[in-house]
């Protein structure tokens, strides 16, 4: 009975999201397809408001894929960075012009990027490389509006190549200095070579606890963990020796289920 209830919860979550955009209104690229996201036992519907303490570790994801043989790449982007906090003179050419955020005088920041999500012969979808950009939890400035953090799942084509060594978004650079995460244009990324269609998305809102209430509240977070549509979701992280996250992704009755292990540096 418990697994059936969880399956129904997941189905209801997907049904509710299918009638609305799963990316923030006015943002591009956009889609109506839901990427299921869970922070612990909190199931995310588009625009769910969370506290920073709820987002300190990487969430889990699942998606009912129509192309299990496809390769995917996953991004998490803050669309609400105050442009006044980004100095164009300190940015690299790949970050210019400054990426447009959501709303006037807003730009963007890359919080997570995992490329190369593929299916193995036994049906498990795993990452064969470290993330391009390790997970950084939301950290909106004190006193600012609620920030929109968007999760994008793209198809990854054969022609895709990771950022070159001189790019601020290269794995060695983006994880070495916070400034290299600023002004990440999702639209330029989507238009780049080797990046396929936007498959699904979801987003949360986070506001600094010390901030005022000048942001628009999203849905109230609920404490439920939806399972994969069509079956009971399973989460089985594999051991990982390293300095950051490793994603483990399983194909469960026609659904992608991503699990995470987060190791924190001392």
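^ structure tokens above, recovered residues below v
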């Amino acid at each position: 009975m418990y697994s059936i209830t969880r399956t129904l919860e997941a189905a209801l979550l997907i049904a509710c999201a299918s009638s609305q955009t799963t990316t923030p209104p006015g943002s591009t690229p956009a889609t109506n397809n839901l990427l299921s996201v869970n922070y612990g036992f909190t199931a995310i519907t588009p625009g769910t408001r969370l506290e920073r303490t709820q987002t300190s570790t990487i969430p889990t994801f699942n998606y009912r894929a129509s192309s299990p043989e496809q390769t995917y790449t996953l991004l998490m982007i803050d669309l609400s960075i105050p442009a006044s906090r980004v100095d164009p003179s300190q940015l690299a050419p790949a970050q210019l012009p400054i990426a447009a955020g959501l709303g006037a005088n807003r730009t963007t920041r890359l919080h997570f990027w995992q490329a190369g999500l593929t299916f193995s012969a036994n049906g498990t979808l795993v990452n064969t490389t470290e993330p391009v950009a390790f997970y950084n939890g939301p950290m909106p400035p004190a006193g600012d509006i609620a920030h929109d953090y968007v999760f994008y799942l793209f198809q990854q084509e054969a022609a895709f190549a990771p950022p070159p060594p001189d790019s601020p978004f290269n794995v060695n650079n983006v994880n070495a200095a916070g400034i290299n995460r600023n002004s990440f244009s999702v639209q330029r990324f989507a238009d780049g070579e080797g990046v396929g269609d936007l498959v699904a998305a979801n987003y949360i809102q986070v506001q600094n606890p010390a901030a005022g209430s000048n942001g628009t509240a999203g849905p109230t977070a609920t404490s439920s963990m939806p399972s994969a549509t069509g079956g009971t979701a399973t989460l089985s992280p594999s051991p990982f020796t390293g300095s950051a996250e490793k994603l483990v992704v399983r194909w469960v009755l026609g659904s992608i289920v991503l699990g995470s292990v987060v190791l924190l540096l001392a």
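The helical segments are 2-18, 171-174, 186-190.
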